[in-house]
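Is this the right way to post structure tokens for a design question? Let me know if I should format differently. Anyway, here goes:
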């Protein structure tokens, strides 16, 4: 393991500790997605600087994305800023928030991001639809109670199909993201092998 890989490993260890301390299994994947995206982002360089500060910035960005610091996250999780900075006690609060903002801008954060949001948070976001006149409106639920049994069954089937289509699109996007990251990592490792072959002949 070279110096760069060692630094990334330290960031990952710190994030795992944070997840084990405050989060749940549903948070593991989106937090890992942010970490992997940050590694691959050209505007960020996680191998430079303090690994704990990078971990704190990623964790803080994740918490803001999923409303965990506001006490009203749809996920049911809640984390006070005091507890957060007690965990990352060696990191300055202002520096962490600045680092988080840099990460958010570099990765194109927006609430409801399909890869960086927890499932409950994603499901709570409003869904927008384009009307026949071209205007955009918030999709509102239909009162099933006003339907007869057959209409209700048909409506539920439509909802089920739509949910399946959304899930397939999400899974396809996630698989493509992972494939691109894997290809980039393999390419980077091959380049490192050419430059420093002695690191791989262990």
């Amino acid at each position: 393991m070279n110096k760069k890989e060692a630094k990334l490993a330290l960031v990952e260890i710190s994030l795992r500790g944070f997840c084990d301390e405050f989060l749940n299994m549903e948070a593991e994947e989106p937090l890992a997605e942010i970490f992997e995206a940050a590694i691959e982002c050209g505007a960020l360089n996680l191998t430079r600087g303090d690994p704990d500060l990078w971990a704190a910035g990623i964790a803080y960005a994740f918490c803001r994305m999923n409303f965990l610091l506001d006490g009203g996250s749809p996920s049911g999780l809640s984390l006070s800023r005091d507890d957060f900075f007690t965990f990352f006690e060696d990191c300055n609060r202002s520096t962490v928030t600045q680092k988080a903002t840099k990460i958010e801008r570099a990765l194109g954060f927006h609430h409801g991001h399909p890869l960086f949001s927890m499932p409950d948070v994603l499901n709570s976001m409003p869904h927008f639809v384009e009307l026949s006149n071209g205007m955009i409106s918030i999709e509102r639920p239909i009162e099933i109670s006003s339907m007869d049994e057959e209409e209700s069954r048909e409506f539920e089937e439509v909802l089920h199909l739509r949910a399946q289509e959304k899930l397939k699109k999400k899974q396809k996007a996630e698989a493509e993201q992972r494939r691109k990251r894997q290809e980039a990592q393999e390419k980077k490792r091959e380049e490192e092998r050419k430059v420093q072959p002695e690191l791989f002949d262990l």
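Format looks fine. Someone answered above. Worth noting: Confidence is low (pLDDT under 50) at residues 140-147. The chain has one domain: 3-199.
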